[in-house]
Queue: 4 jobs
Job 1
Amino acid sequence: MAVLVAVMVAVLAIAVAGIVVVLSRVGGGPVTTLTVTASSEGDLEVTRAMLLARMQAARLADPKVTRTDRQLVLSARGTTPEQLRALTRPGRLHLRRVAAAADGSGTATTTLPAPTSTPAVAATIGEAYRAAAAVTTEQEAQALPASVRAAFAALPPQDVATLPARMRLLIPEIRCEQLATRPADVAGEPVVACEGPVKLLLDPATVTGADISAAKASRSDQGTWIVTASFKPDGQAKFTNLSKSLADAQGRLAIVLDNVLISAPQVVGVIPGDVQVTGMFTESQARVLAAQLGGGGELPVTLS
């Protein structure tokens, strides 16, 4: 008996800002393609391989990454442009101790020393900078003249990022909106990030993505999605020592990915093994995060 199979294929292509979505009834769902451009020509083949590993870790169907000059083209079935874009982010993971918090109550203090160098923006705001440099507590900052505080409110994020960390934490007019768009964090320097409306001073990173050996997404006993990261031997030693120092002081561990504070849980005991990252993750978000953490570390070039 001869069986005739008629296959009808409907294709719709949409090209907007480097994204092409091809819808097909054959082959396992729609295909999404994303084109990104590298900031430099270095290590593009390494970047291509890392992106492919991330896509595979995120369990995307038919993942492909092709390269043309400084452009990389990602394609997969059954995904979205947003998910592909998330996979092209740097994946810069820093684990840091929360050193202080400024919530507007006037109680925040810091033991950071006075700045030893003066950023270029100091010349722009003049006396306001000199007055703020002497401040060591949130209460002192709140007592600064209105004209001094107003000078900081008007600063663009790139100038705010050059201010001493102590100033970024304590001056009330330096807002989370200014801090959120700061340049890429440097592992060896303190940073100020936000947890909702609360500013947190974070110590230099003790553990980074380079210390991660693998990561996976799974459901917790409560049914929520979590990401579990395992460490390389040296990384495990660093993380365990960090957890011990935090547990002794009932301190908090800040988990920061690409300048975004994912969570900052309190550490109540020494952690000799893996770290669990929790949040209000969807399955897709958890798989993307696991792919970023376990896909070979931070991308060597910036993609846009």
Note: Confidence is low (pLDDT under 50) at residues 1-26.
Job 2
Amino acid sequence: MANSSAPQPTGFQRREARTRGGGRVAPARPPLFILIGRDHVVLSAGFVLLAVLIAVAPLAQGKETPGHELGIPPVVWEVVGISGPDGNRVAVSDAERYSVQFQPDGKLAVASGCIQPAGTYTAGDGTLEVKLSISTMSPCSTAATAQEESFLEVLDDITRYKFDHDGFLVLASDDESLWLRARLTGVLWEWQEFRGGDDSRVEPQHPENYTITFLPAGNLAIQAGCNRAIGTYSTDGATIELLVGPATGVSCPRQPKSDQFLRDLGEVTSHVFQDGNLYLALWADAGIMEFAARYPKSPPATPQAG
């Protein structure tokens, strides 16, 4: 007799490959009011500035945004809800267990707890094709496995994607959708520009030299030109506090942008994600720092390792 406690093949594992259709979803333009999760945020003046600057961003003279080469930024996207044909969204319990990351080489990193799939994807212009295969399984409760199987079955059926005006990435099939929110951790955030409350605009000549990495346990790793710094961070909803330590004493030419970059990070009070980019708002309507996600070529350095 088979051991009933051993992991059994799921419907997802037994499924044959299937042909998927395509679809085009126009990207939504951000509104002036921001939703964080499912709750409205009472907007302070700083939040209003953040919303307005994000809303007018598509009208500015633009450049290609790093991290979007295959259509979806390489952010770690946490699965927070699944909606069926009726459109009702059901919250995913233990959402931190379920995530996807669209890596630049076309590989899909999926975390789902008990079932550990490997995957690949192709994406662009609103269309998305995902191919999954099971690599390992570990013993789990029936309830946990059922939720994971549901998540993976929907993911395997996805044909299109869009970024909604609340900051979510929505992956949709003909009948169901996955709702995902971005995480701060898991990527290198590369500075794109600073937009001041007085309409001033500063762009680094070499964005790859101005980065911030949110590490586990609330630590920060920062590159500011030829110098590096470490620090800590904490979040509470949209509120964020960055405590930036002193920069390393590397001998290099004076770089005003580096000094300003570090000062601005220390004045950040709130954050929001839009289209997979990270926006950090400074206090007193001083301005907005915009960052794009880069997939790290190697694991982010820890404060101890530098």
Note: Residues 188-294 form a domain with the Lipocalin fold (CATH 2.40.128.270).
Job 3
Amino acid sequence: MSDFFPRSSTLHESEEPATNAVAERPARAPLAARASRRDPSRPEPILGARRLAKTYRKNKHVVPVLRGVDFEVATGQFAAIVGQSGSGKSTLLHLLATLDAPDEGRVEFDGRRIDNLPAAERDWIRNQQFGMIFQFYHLLPELTAIENVLAPLMISEGVFRYWRNRRQHTARAAELMDQVGLSHRLRHKPREMSGGEMQRAAIARALITQPRVLLADEPTGNLDSQTGEEIMSILRDLNKSQELTIVMVTHDNAIAQQADVIVRLKEGRVERCDAEDLRTSSTHVA
């Protein structure tokens, strides 16, 4: 069993590990094995993609989306992925999060390959190591804001352990909601909240397990410009004050310019660019 997955987890030893049919090219060493060859002035990557390829098929139609993508982000960096609509931005993010499997290549986290781990171990990584926020929030409508924030802990701990720890968990959730400016919305349900408030609640939910990496798929895409900038202010503060590693997909160049590292997806491959490149192009890339 992988070092990622703690023995105290709810996975039983008798469970059948999930199979993985990912095609793998030979050769390139994992992040940890390449560490000694890296420039010592460069920070170590915490999350990376190696020669990722992904093709979608529908009937006779074959649509190649990613064609050998290499990408990495270092601990404490804020990385933005931009590109035209359909360029594969969200596909790349989903592969990094192990929500989907590549046809070829590998995803590495903290020096180890993770895309071919058993399903329960990938679930544990997403629950404990990755925080995720999406364009459409994905809050559960029947739960209050604070219950939505607590949901990852309810899932990871189970009923009895969660019930024993509920007071400290609730205090932690309330603290996070105050941090994102939602202390007045603890008992409100999503239908009683604005889009910006729902995204703030989604950010608090993503942080409740104290993840090492935050993956954000168009976090401002469904918001007006002022509210979007408020969300970006929260993300920048998390990145700077807590050294939280963030990988963000966005179609908005103005938003992307606020990141430390900017990469553009074009024709299924990565191009490194900078804020000046984005300023000389249109306000939106899609």
Note: Residues 5-29, 31-36 have pLDDT under 50 and may be disordered.
Job 4
Amino acid sequence: MALTPFGWVDEPHTKRQKHKKEILRLLRRKQNVMLIGPGGIGKTTMLREISDELAESAYYIESPNPPKSALKTAFIEIGGFHDDDLKEMKFSSWTVQQVVKELIKLCEGKNFVLVLDSLDRITVSSSDWLKELAESEVTILGAARKTKEEKELLDRFFWTAKTITLQPLSDREILEIIKAQVNDSLSPIRFKDKNAEHFFGKTVVTSSKGIPIVAVQMCQKARGTKQVSLTFVREELMTAHKASVKYIDLTPLILIAVGLIGALRYIGRGMGNQELYIIAGTLAAAAIIIRVLMPRRSRQRKA
């Protein structure tokens, strides 16, 4: 069934499948691996899939922050401990460092993989416990967005790790996601006609810009209506997507700039500096004109 000029595709996400195979190969060699990419690119999905595939040889931690709570839960579940065991070990009084040491002992000789999602939530100042994990026999598969602070964290503790950067999906790969959503056996997406189907596909491909989670969210919104029509795509789907773009109003900054320029104007007048007085007046006028002509368009960013 044709959906867009790109056509339906049945092959798997080629790049993602290659990444997955490469990651599994590295983990079997006890090589630490870090997945890098922007939010919504599919890092968590990849981590969960690999964790499921490794089964009992891996443990997935959704967020290692706060570390004490996350690592304690991991220790209990990996070791299969009960309340009586924990009381005997005086587990409630353990520090993060103690939990890490015992967790390492628990995983020794098992070729165990600790899967750490959302490493970007950890600050460098509270990440000392990562050093022991990174230098232990426990293999780590992690994910982060790699902003400036995450880069410092990764360079500090995981400089030996293999870094794999997830790139936005191609149009064909986004179409495959749409196909899976449209043909969902439990809740398929229905269209009023072929034109609506065609337009829906093009809109999702264009608007998602290769980010899987955006494509899925747009499909989920379409699933909420009985029949997807051209009007729905234009008025509901496209409007909702545009609403997800948050604007930063620079009015306060412009007003501050006008105030400073005004101060310079008075200084110039008080000092008898006619040149400074004229320049300051000109800048103030320019700032006001810019604010009037560019309402809410100064800067914009994705939500």
Note: Residues 1-12, 243-247, 295-303 have pLDDT under 50 and may be disordered.
